[in-house]
Amino acid sequence: MTVKSKGKVLSIVLNNEFVKICELSRSGKNVQVHKTVTVPTPERSYMDGLIRDRGALCKTIKVALDDNRIVTNNVIFSIASNKIATKEVIIPNVKASKIESIIKTNATEYFPVNIEEHIIQYTVLEHIEENGEEKIKVLVMAAPSDMVETFYSLASSIGLKIESIDYIGNSTSHAIRKQIDFVSSIVIQVENDATIVNIFNNNVLELQ
């Protein structure tokens, strides 16, 4: 997760068991945590990235925000779902403004899905050298459009404005980079409904 707002922002992580809410802000390269709260996910309201009962989730999150006097409106949702496809790809060393067009042009080669029904996002992992040429390693993600839309509907019902929607594995890797030393590391995140494995080589993500 990358915090872009200069003011406070909410990070909300949903899984089948818990709703995890964190109020934070960015100062330079540092992120300051102001408040955190974890509440149980209403039964049968959320499953593998799909919001099944928006009303129940809306009420749960509103109560959690009110009880903890959190009034921040901007939110970043992090989604954990088997329906989100990820793939590491190597692209030519181009300007940052050109990366998106390359990713979208080649998306059908990355994922065996109907691209028109998915939202494609990417994160630059590192610059590498391959066969004597500088290249860029990118993590590309494809999320079903209808899944993403349910989060916009949820945010609207709560009165929140979405800053971004991220994949939980990508959010985890951003956080881990700030906490581990420059040594090869394996970081395992175990949840009730998913286990995410991050492998770092000298603090650079190799595989998720």
Please supply descriptive tags for the structure shown above:
alpha+beta; 3-stranded antiparallel sheet; globular; 5-stranded mixed sheet; 208 residues
Could you explain the architecture of this structure?
25% of the residues lie in helices and 46% in strands. It has 208 residues and is of the alpha+beta class. The strands form four sheets. The chain has a five-stranded mixed beta sheet with strand order 3-2-1-6-10. Strands 7-9-8 form a three-stranded antiparallel beta sheet. Helix 1 (54-67) crosses helix 4. The radius of gyration is 18 Å and the shape is globular. Mean pLDDT is 84; it is low at 203-208.
- Amino- and carboxy-terminal Cα gap: 15 Å
Structural class: alpha+beta
Query: SSE order, as H and E?
Result: EEEEEHEEHHEEHEHEEE
Mean pLDDT: 84
Q: Note the beta-strand portion.
A: over 45%
Strand order of the largest sheet: 3-2-1-6-10
Short description:
The chain is an alpha+beta fold.
Task: Please specify the SSE layout and strand pairing.
Blueprint: E1 8-14, E2 18-27, E3 30-40, E4 46-47, E5 50-51, H1 54-67, E6 74-79, E7 85-92, H2 96-105, H3 107-110, E8 118-130, E9 133-144, H4 145-158, E10 161-167, H5 168-177, E11 185-190, E12 195-201, E13 204-207
Parallel strand pairs: 1-6, 6-10
Antiparallel strand pairs: 1-2, 2-3, 4-5, 7-9, 8-9, 11-12, 12-13
Helix pairs in contact: 1-4
